[in-house]
Structure formats: structure tokens, C-alpha cells
Amino acid sequence: MKRALFAASVLGVLWAPLARAEEIASVNTNFRFTGSDRVSVEAYDDPLVTGVTCYVSRARTGGVKGTLGIAEDPTEASIACRQVGPIKIAEPLKQKQDVFTDRMSLIFKTLHVVRVVDAKRNTLVYLTYSDRIATGSAKNSVTAVPMPEGTTIPLK
Fold first, then answer.
1. What was the pLDDT predicted at 142?
2. CA nearest 108: which of 131, 75, 77?
3. pTM score
4. By CB count within 10 A, which of 12, 52, 76, 95 is most buried?
5. What is the C-alpha separation between 93 and 91, in angstroms, rounded?
6. Residues whose CB falls within 8 Å of the CB of residue 88, separated by 6 or more in sequence, listed in order
7. Strands 22-30 and 37-45: what pairing?
8. 104 part of a folded domain
9. Residues 46 and 52 sit within 8 Å (Cβ to Cβ)
10. Which domain of life is it from (predicted)?
């Protein structure tokens, strides 16, 4: 029992820094009686950089499998990150770090949003891509948020 509680708390700490997505809107792309395919727009706030929000659009599979959460979503995704308030960096950032992940199929495919620090240009670069246990996809999208004058990105 103690091991299970310890494992759960360790997993909670490891996953805590990842952002949580909030669906902003979606549009149907292919009608199905059991649930339409759609493009979903989700927002998430960078958990370590207050004042930066990323918007990810991605395809979602409908139908019975989509409703049950066992369908594999298409690989296509796009990202746009923007300064939405005063920027405050909570702690020194890693040069490259996953800030958001979400499954795109039951167990095999995952969507990633990675924050990359471009220290030379004092800019945060966000990359979205998907991977798969056996094979990944080269389909990706990138966006950048330059730091306001006087704000320097602290690195680990």
C-alpha cells in the first residue's frame, strides 16, 4: 500500500509541471451519426512562464471509436503561442522541455508541445509534433514568443 501511494505521489510530481488543455472551440469536418470528426482548438498556459498561452488546433476522430476514446486521431496539428499578459518566469528553464502532452490514440500515439529556449535571441520557441511507439511523424508546427525588453530567460 505504501509503495502504491509513493508511486502515485511521484507520478503526480512528475506530471504536475505539464500544462492542462482547455478546449476553446471546435468545428465539424465530417458528419457521422455517431459523432462527427472535428478540428479542435485548445488553449494552455505555459506552467512555468506566466503570461504565455499556446493555442493548438488538431484533428479529432469522431464516430463510435472517437466517442469511446479508442480512435487514433490524425497527426495534423498547428500551434500559435502569444504573450497574453505580463511575462514572469517561475524558475530557470531547461533548454528544451515538454510542456504539454496528450494522447492521440489509446496507447500508441502522443501529441507533444515542446518549449525550446533560444537564448541568443531571448525568445521562447514552441514546437508541436506527434510520436508513435513504432514510428513518429515529421508533421510539425512551430511558433515563437520573443521576451519583452528587460526580461531575460533564466536557464538551468
1. 95
2. 131
3. 0.74
4. 52
5. 6
6. 49, 50, 51
7. antiparallel
8. yes
9. yes
10. Bacteria
Kindly report the length of the chain: 156
Of the candidates 85, 152, 100, which has an alpha carbon nearest to the alpha carbon of residue 124? 152
**Above 80 in pLDDT, residue 47?**
yes
The DSSP call for residue 109 is E
The span from the CA of 132 to the CA of 75, in Å, is 10
Residues 124-139 have pLDDT tens digits of 999 998 876 556 667 8
In this structure, is the dihedral angle defined by the CA atoms of residues 68, 14, 59 and 82, taken in order, positive or negative?
Answer: positive
Q: Scanning the structure block, which residue is given the C-alpha cell 496507447?
A: 107
Residue 7 lies in a domain: no
Model pLDDT for residues 97-110, shown as the tens digit of each residue: 999 987 655 566 67
Is 108 a domain residue?
yes
